[in-house]
Write a structure and sequence with these properties.
By secondary structure, this protein is α+β, with helices and mostly antiparallel strands. The protein contains 18 helices and 30 strands. The chain has five domains: 72 residues, Phenylalanyl-tRNA Synthetase, Chain B, domain 1, CATH 3.30.56; 115 residues, Beta Barrel (OB fold (Dihydrolipoamide Acetyltransferase, E2P)), CATH 2.40.50; 200 residues, 3-Layer(bba) Sandwich (Phenylalanyl-tRNA Synthetase, Chain B, domain 3), CATH 3.50.40; 68 residues, Phenylalanyl-tRNA Synthetase, Chain B, domain 1 (2-Layer Sandwich), CATH 3.30.56.10; 120 residues, Bira Bifunctional Protein, Domain 2 (BirA Bifunctional Protein, domain 2, 2-Layer Sandwich).
Length: 640
């Protein structure tokens, strides 16, 4: 999980230095794998305006540009107007645009081979070039290398590029396994909340995450209908969808592209980037379908989305170009007649949003984590969505996040809400209040926190805390799906307070002498007596074959049967010890033992003897079998 500190600072203050913060994250949040100072890559790179652009005299595909950096860069050759000459081969370079200039002496942030490359003044086909005008790929903002990056934010010429797009950033890579039980921490917002908590700062979620924005009102002249049929409510507790019209597909703002790139996501276009941006922010995956492509699949005028299991032999072409035949228990998204997505894993190529998309359907859903995990493993498809659905996202956030995404589509793609919000949901209650006392917490942590300290620690991360005398009534926010019992509260208080602040001392407890256990003593006496008489103690399986009951005259219906037996010979819990002992007689006689005695001291169960709490009573039993072959048997019977 990659954390962008500049993104985090959109939601909370950072009062600690980078080294101290990384130490606290490692101690109180999760193991830190790597810390990357990406600002170092952009040292010396500044903004500049192209004030002149002429064809290169000796090369058809090159242009000779005059750029104005406000005379900010030193030790570079300028003309009488203070302009710098740069040769550029990009087809989109032109007069009047603002660009990122990498002057001589600066390092190119991203190269094809990953090696550092420092620019110099060079002659290109007879014309001197002072550095270069950078593409998005060279700046490591996107993968575009077909043209230069044209800046989309107004700024003074010569402004360091890292100031314009908040590139003076640190990326902290935290080990994913540390967040296994924390689905909220797979988003920057959740991590920001935790960082506030470990710094002792009160965090307040942005308003759109506390109350849904007014974004669902139909504003489009077009009326696009979406019908959702969720046939798997147990596996898909909530499926939210809305259609939007008049979409204009274009590149996302550079700031959005840059933030996505920093946390490991490839920018695609404004619609796909919005779904990914929202996911990386909130940890809730989203998906966008091309509305018109969906209609074309069924040749209908209404978009139908069906959540179901696949039919036998159905296949799906995924967005990554891979064709799969979904496993029979997979959650699938379909039109009326065809699969269009592997629910919670990856969308289908036939409804992909592309440059020609005009109308879309936004999806914000929740899928069963175990089903998603099995599907991903079965088909070898592992995505950012799978990583997050594996942790169990709260369905209570869907409407909030959908409203936020719709607002972004309106802003970045000029989209309009064109349908009602479809919200297929199986209601789920908010977290229940947990009653606890400061004594309960302190006894387990070895701490000396008062009720006010505990309340402050928890309220900093948006828990609701009510104090009623000696008791605290604590309610976790809806996104904390991991808080269920008192011990969860203890762990939360200890972690946020800081384990390093707990006293380092061994627990003290008085030890009373143990009283003699009569049962153990009795069993030991039995063993000693029988062994002294020549019998051998055996230890047999507690489970037996059903036929053995019939052979010894016992009722099989009184025995407990195992659901997942190791083998057919071990299907039932024995009613007594004798069947197990009798089963061993033949094998011992066959091995040449003409005369022997075996015994066992162990436990048995049956359905007629039940504790008041509903659990079977464990009955202590002893059984002895004396066996002899025919020759020995005659001796004991007094025969000659």
């Amino acid at each position: 999980m990659k954390i962008s500190l500049n993104w985090i600072q959109e939601f909370t203050d950072l009062k600690l230095g980078i080294d101290e913060l990384v130490t606290k994250i490692g101690a109180q949040l999760g193991e830190v794998d790597e810390v990357i100072n990406i600002g170092e890559r952009y040292e010396g790179i500044v903004t500049a305006k192209v004030v002149g652009c002429d064809k290169h005299p000796n090369a058809d595909k090159l242009s000779v540009c005059k750029i104005d950096d406000g005379n900010k860069v030193k030790n570079v050759k300028r003309d009488e107007d203070g302009l710098v000459q740069v040769v550029c081969g990009a087809p989109n370079v032109r007069k009047g645009i603002t660009i990122a200039w990498i002057p001589p002496g600066a390092i190119v942030p991203s190269t094809f081979d990953g090696e550092k490359f420092t620019l110099e003044v060079r002659e290109l086909r007879g014309v001197m070039s002072n550095g270069m005008i950078a593409s998005g790929k060279e700046l490591d903002i996107n993968d575009s290398h077909d043209g230069i990056l044209i800046l989309d934010k107004p700024c003074e010429n010569g402004t360091p590029i890292l100031e314009v797009y908040k590139l003076d950033d640190y990326i902290i890579d935290v080990e994913n396994k540390m967040f296994t039980h924390r689905p909220d921490c797979f988003g920057q917002l959740g991590v920001a909340r935790e960082i506030a908590g470990i710094q002792g700062i009160e965090f307040k979620s942005p308003e759109w995450y506390r109350e849904a924005l007014d974004a669902f009102k139909q504003t489009s002249d077009k009326k696009l209908e979406v019908i959702v049929d969720n046939k798997l409510p147990e596996l898909v507790p909530r499926f939210t969808a809305i259609a939007m019209s008049d979409i204009q597909i274009m590149k996302s703002p550079i700031m959005i592209q840059s933030f996505l790139r920093r946390v490991g996501v490839k920018p695609i276009n404004n619609i796909v980037d919005i779904t990914n941006f929202v996911m990386m922010l909130t940890a809730q995956p989203m998906h966008a379908y091309d509305y018109d492509k969906l209609l074309a699949l069924d040749n209908t005028k209404t978009a139908n989305i069906v959540v179901r299991k696949p039919k036998k032999g159905e296949k799906l072409l995924l967005l990554d170009g891979k064709t799969v035949e979904p496993r029979q228990d997979a959650i699938c998204i379909a039109s009326k007649g065809k699969l269009i997505g592997l629910g919670g894993v990856m969308g289908g190529a036939e409804t992909e949003v592309d440059d020609n998309t005009q109308n879309i359907i936004l999806e914000c859903a929740n899928f069963d984590m175990y089903s998603i995990r099995r599907t991903a493993m079965e088909h070898g498809v592992f995505t950012e969505a799978v990583t997050r659905f594996n942790k169990g996202q709260s369905p209570l956030q869907n409407k909030l996040i959908m409203a936020y995404a719709v607002a972004w589509v309106k802003k970045l793609a000029n989209g309009q809400a064109a349908s009602k919000l479809s919200d297929e949901t199986k209601p789920k209650n908010h977290n229940q209040s947990i009653k606890i006392t400061k004594e309960f917490i302190n006894e387990r942590l070895g701490s000396d926190l008062n009720s006010k300290d505990i309340s402050t620690i928890l309220r900093n991360v948006e828990f609701t805390v009510e104090s009623t005398g000696e008791e605290l009534r604590i309610k976790a926010p809806f996104w904390r799906t991991d808080i269920e019992i008192q011990e969860d509260i203890v762990e939360e208080v200890g972690r946020l307070h800081g384990y390093d602040k707990l006293p380092i001392e061994l627990p003290k407890r008085g030890l009373d002498p143990a009283s003699s256990n009569k049962l153990i003593k009795t069993k030991q006496t039995i063993r000693e007596v029988l062994s002294a008489a020549g019998a051998n103690e055996v230890l047999t399986y507690s489970f037996v074959h059903g036929k053995l009951f019939e052979q010894v005259g016992q009722d099989k219906k009184l025995a407990y049967q195992l659901n997942n037996a190791l083998s057919p010979d071990l299907q039932y819990y024995r009613l007594s010890l004798l069947p197990s002992l009798l089963d061993k007689i033949h094998a011992n006689i066959k091995a040449g033992h003409g005369e022997f005695a075996i015994y066992e001291v162990n436990k048995t169960h049956d359905k007629t003897n039940i504790h008041p709490d509903g659990l079977p009573v464990e009955e202590e039993r002893v059984a002895l079998v004396f066996a002899a072959d025919s020759k020995s048997a005659k001796h004991y019977a007094g025969s000659p």
